[in-house]
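>> received
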Amino acid sequence: MSDCQDRHVLVEIARLFLRLGLTAFGGPAAHIGLMEREAVSRRGWLTRPQFLDLVGACNLLPGPGSTQVAMALGYRRAGWIGLVIAGLCFILPSTLSTLALAWAYLRYGGLPQAQGLLYGAKPVMLAVIVQAVWNLSRMAFRRWPLALAGLACFAAALAGAPPIAVLLVSGCVALLAVWLGSRPRTELRLGAFPLAIGSGPAASGAAIGGAAAGTVGLLPILLVFLKMGVVVFGSGYVLLAFFKADLVDRLHWITSPQLLDAITAGQVTPGPVFATATFLGYLIRGWAGAAVATAAIFLPSFLMAGLVGALTGRIRKSKLAAGFLDGVNAAAVALMASVALSLGRATLVDGWTWALGLVSVALLVRYKVNATWLLLTGAGLGVLLRGLGY
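>> returned
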């Protein structure tokens, strides 16, 4: 391929993923649907089975799934430089818009208008999490052993078990069940791949001590968010469990209401929900904290998506890896349910928030209303209700 053709391919990658980063609302499933239409149907970068291989392999990895699919597509198209361009172009619009919201939140968060916006948006955000739990549970609990595992993980989460431990124990038990049931000849090394990448940073994260948010160093922020980027399996909403366990309960860097405000900001902006880290980093340590948190949480994905591009077929065919993922997914949905319950207590504070939350759940689950428009509507109603004195 000539230099001119190389530049054309790289510009094509940049333009596509920058546009998706600016317009891709609706969460990971919507992002992947848009990528399939653009990369497979319109551009013919790869076949539909090859695209499904990438999606399946990325689901075996921790981190933001749709972002990793974008990176893997960039890798398939133009190698490592294509991966970096696709990742940056897909991530940057979300992180910059989330950073702007974080700045406005700290500057104007005490004004009635801002309070009204969050007052109306939070119940809808809670409904979005409930919808995600509902949709994912049908796949995660498709067999009764997985449903029992989910109940056990839900109970463990309510009892205060660390999210990392819940995920890894559930995944290991499911992997062991597959191994004992089928006695495969497949090498354990490949099947255990997610364990290796999921357990390493846990110890380093546990060593970080708590501190007041205004005095938090950049290194602790780096280590905490790097751990998030390496160990969070499943939907981006599973981040809630990790953020709550580390940033709220253990380190006391932020409060539960601030956590829900951050996840709401991540939802109303396009692109990956993991950009919530930008908002939280800004709350903890200003501009420098936002930059460090964002870089740390996304950095592992750049490395792992490249591995997906090279090892897609082998990972997807591994029965042990699939068994581990089943256990992890069951635990992930259980963690999301436990956090939704916890945040619901802080969010549903009166009749209006209860009504908005219940109506939002019905519209999302039954009628598949676009979550972004619903969030904006909820925010507008919140401003109106606050203005009327409710």
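>> Residues 3-110+143-336 form one domain.
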